[in-house]
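Exercise 7.
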Amino acid sequence: MRADDRPIYALRARGFEPGQSRFADINEAVTTYVAAVRQKQPQGPYALAGYSYGTMLAFEMAKRLGADDGPGEELSWNVCLLHLTQFLGLGTAAFADEQTAAPSDSPYHRATRREALAWILQAVDASRLRDLGLGARQLTRWADVAYGLQSMAIDYEPSGLVPSIDVFHAEPLKVAAPPREVWVTEHLSRWSDFSRSEPRFHGVGGAHYTMIGPEYVASFSEKLQAALNARGI
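Solution. The predicted structure, written as tokens, is:
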């Protein structure tokens, strides 16, 4: 962290490198990540953060680390590819919303993977693709990893308790809950069922795809630092 020179370590999904296998299930991902954390820092306390899908993995890691120390809707490959255009800044929110909201029998949703990829490559910002060094093969690998992660979480239901949870919320996806208030009160508030203390909620700038992007990352960092300080971490 910039304010106190605190190191931040990132854990990424496996499968981006050629010949590298993807995680088979949630347990394998959590076991791999916990081992990496223990190798870097054998004992807690730990501050774990998960963004979007990663929240589930961070929660499971927190339970595993705490135990070791002692006392959704299924997405199609095509939709995963569409969401990637937002996370990678390849298209506008309106572009993704239009396709996401389309009926399940719309041309894009019914397209084969090859057809969907061709459609995306024609529709997105070509200069941004070049900046990221992405072509058809690399974008396909990204979509394969994203789809694999979503597929292994289809039947996931959280359980158990962790000592504390902080929730950082931005403007949600329209398909999830258009007003932020609904997203917080009817969805995010359910994290209280899995925390021994009352969760703390922090509103941040931006939206689901942009909250830690260049425009908002500085203000997000300030709120994250304040939350860590409030927890005495």
